[in-house]
Design a protein that fits this description.
541 residues, alpha/beta, eight-stranded parallel sheet, binds 1-deoxynojirimycin
Length: 541
């Protein structure tokens, strides 16, 4: 068994986690000061969103120096101390590896744009204009053309995200070697692995308008493995938006020596109208949602590994998006925790999820920080969408939802900073905060804590087979996990209404293992499920 197979990973978005020097921006000493909290929660590793030097066009996902720490976050000594102090508490640090692109302020790009003959020219993807315009009609994820004209050398460079995030040319062996050298620098420091940003894009063939899953993608990953990961006890998780279960097996089959696992987003994208963008939302079909989650559980059960998540720094808060963040906030937050943490794979918790933090509501675009939402708003306003429509969808799906400061206590600025936070603290911090949650036995926090311990102490949670029950039920998600003659039943009423459940599960029932309504017994043949009730029980013969 690998350490990450029964691990739970906690994502820290450093700008918003804990400020230690009053500048309103979270930092590495701040994270260090909260390690005891994370140890108490019980997590095994921290996925640390980028802390590298960056002009922050995309909040650190535009890196100008992979081997320097942004002064806002601290120093390399702070970073080394974080790795050591986390290790003392049994926590590993998983760094964010953003190598599909760099910042345009990275030295490689500064050189590359100087002349067509510069030794770094070919580190990026440059093309001549076609008919006086861009080489083709590829679009950037953050709006507009994916090609930016550079007057200096009269060519276009490719950027699949913002124009300050030029794409690296992975076909160039020197690019690959430079990336591997940088990865080894970090691995030699003793980090626990990498989360690999949009890694499925590195094999792109822009002339053929192929972005994800390019033909050489898996060759590159095998080469990367050989040059960096081989023989090291680390984990890797690739961010792969367009992945299918077949492709996920290519990445995560241990025999192929690529990655430990990937993030797949199929369940997240079920609220998008087909072939449109994340902003074109539709109602989620609950039955389809269960089907998709089940498909991934089944498909990756043998030669692959799943990552399990509802949230990250790009996604709205689970309790607001899928649950009920007012009347049933506590119940629904626990329900989603139970549903996810009883599945097979490695669960990820995004900071604040463990206390049921909620989405942020804004009224004006001036309140938005995120480049993706701002660009979308301006572009769509020109196309004729109304201000109300656009603000609504930003409130539902915008990335700032996840990025508001961590709510530690009910003091000024929720204990996040003594200064003015870079993004406002949510007004609900007086009720929703770590201090209020940590010591109360029936809190969301303690449900997460309990679920982490269940995984640690029950091989069934790590290895058990998964079977979906009641697939067509319009509001109940029920599944079984079975391992070595033991079976657990997980039942969740994903609705705000009381549900009278009748099922053909005739087994006798053992102990209640987890319940978000404090139930002491449960009869699956016939039961009444309260709004957002979730329960885990042992099934006997
Ligand atoms: C995915 C990251 O999670 C997101 O925050 C970032 O904007 C893009 N990749 C580009 O790096």
């Amino acid at each position: 068994m690998k350490w990450w197979q029964n691990a739970v990973i906690y994502q820290v978005y450093p700008r918003s986690f804990q400020d230690s020097n009053g500048d309103g921006i979270g930092d590495i000493p701040g994270i260090i000061s909260r390690l005891d909290y994370l140890k108490y929660l019980g997590v095994d590793a921290i996925w640390l969103s980028p802390v590298y030097d960056s002009p922050n066009d995309d909040n650190g996902y535009d890196i100008s120096d992979y081997q320097a720490i942004h002064p806002d976050f601290g120093t390399m000594e702070d970073m080394d101390r974080l790795i050591d102090e986390a290790a003392e508490r049994g926590i590993r640090i998983v760094m964010d590896l953003v190598v599909n692109h760099t910042s345009d302020e990275h030295q490689w790009f500064v050189e590359s744009r100087k002349s067509k003959t510069n030794e770094y020219r070919d580190f990026y993807i440059w093309r001549d204009p076609v008919d006086g315009g861009p080489p083709n009609d590829m679009e950037a994820a953050f709006g507009g053309s994916a090609w930016e004209y550079d007057e200096e050398t009269e060519q276009y460079y490719l950027h699949l995200f913002s124009k300050k995030q030029p794409d690296l040319n992975w076909e160039n062996e020197n690019v690959r070697q430079s990336v591997y050298d940088m990865m080894n620098y970090w691995l030699d420091k003793g980090i626990g692995g990498f989360r690999m940003d949009v890694i499925d894009l590195i094999g792109k063939l822009p002339d053929e308008k192929i972005t994800s899953n390019g033909p050489k993608l898996h060759d590159y990953l095998q080469e990367l493995h050989e040059a960096t990961l081989k023989g090291r006890d680390v984990m890797t998780v690739g961010e792969t938006w367009g992945v299918t279960p077949e492709a996920a097996k290519l990445y995560s089959d241990p025999e192929r020596h690529e990655l430990s696992m990937v993030f797949q987003f199929e369940h997240i994208q079920l609220d998008e109208k087909s072939n449109q963008s994340k902003w074109d939302i539709k109602e989620i079909d609950f039955v389809e949602w269960k089907e998709v989650l089940t498909k991934w559980q089944i498909e990756l059960k043998d030669n692959g590994w799943n990552s399990l998540f509802w949230n990250n720094h790009d996604l709205p808060r689970v309790v607001s998006r899928y649950g009920n963040d007012s009347e049933y906030r506590v119940e629904s937050a626990k329900l989603f925790a139970i549903l996810l943490h009883l599945m097979k794979g490695t669960p990820y918790i995004f900071q604040g999820e463990e206390i049921g933090m909620t989405n942020r509501t804004i009224e004006s675009i001036d309140e938005v920080d995120d480049i993706e939402s701002i660009n979308m708003y301006n572009e769509r306003l020109d196309e004729g969408y109304t201000h109300e429509e656009l603000i609504h969808v930003i409130n539902v799906k915008g990335r700032d939802n996840a990025r508001t400061p961590m709510q530690w206590d009910d003091s000024d600025q929720a204990g996040f900073t003594t200064g003015t936070p870079w993004l406002p603290v949510q007004p609900n911090y007086k009720e929703i905060n770590v201090e209020a949650s940590r010591d109360s036995s029936d809190s969301i926090f303690n449900t997460y804590r309990q679920l982490i311990q269940l995984r640690k102490h029950n091989p069934l949670v790590v290895w058990g087979d998964y079977e979906l029950l009641l697939p067509d039920h319009p509001s109940v998600y029920a599944y079984k996990r079975s391992y070595k003659g033991k079976t657990w039943l997980i039942v969740a009423n994903v609705s705000g209404k009381v549900e009278h459940l009748v099922s053909n599960i005739t087994n006798s029932v053992g102990d209640v293992i987890v319940s978000n309504y404090d139930k002491e017994s449960f009869d699956p043949k016939q039961s009444v499920l309260q709004p957002y009730e979730a329960i885990v029980v042992e099934l006997l013969d």
